[in-house]
Predict the structure.
Amino acid sequence: MSYPEPRYHGDKGEVNAVFRPAGTPADLSSPGGSTHYLATHESTGGEFGLYKVEMAPRSGGPSTHFHKAMSESFYVLSGELELYNGEKWVTGLAGDFLYVPVGGLHAFKNVSDEPTSMLLLFSPGAPREEYFEQVAEMTGRGGDALKEFRVRHDSYFVD
């Protein structure tokens, strides 16, 4: 096993870190919760995307789907999160982690009476912000517009 090829070729390093304080307001709020854009496609140069998602009690998530270009990982921060791992639903609790490789079937939802929060990690990074910001509207439209939106955002639903 070896490390990837170097992408930085300087000798002294750079000052280029980005700090996001814990109290930063959510980037996106909706009736079902909120999403914090911690590390976006743009800010990581496409290496990964990291988002904190807070779900209200009894909030549905996406139905079973897969991605052709990226993996998705879930890390439960608080509450209970129902996770579909491609075979069955499992209850994720604080500290639990689910990795879904490229092509892996998955889904998630909050069926509890309490809020839940999680970290979502996409690798490589993709411009997911547009997806989060428009998914409710596009779901409401349905039909071909929804299908095209999902495919444009590497989301292939099976039900």
Notes: The two ends are 39 Å apart (CA to CA). The chain has a mean pLDDT of 95. The longest strand covers residues 71-78. Residues 45 and 117 are 26 Å apart (CA to CA).
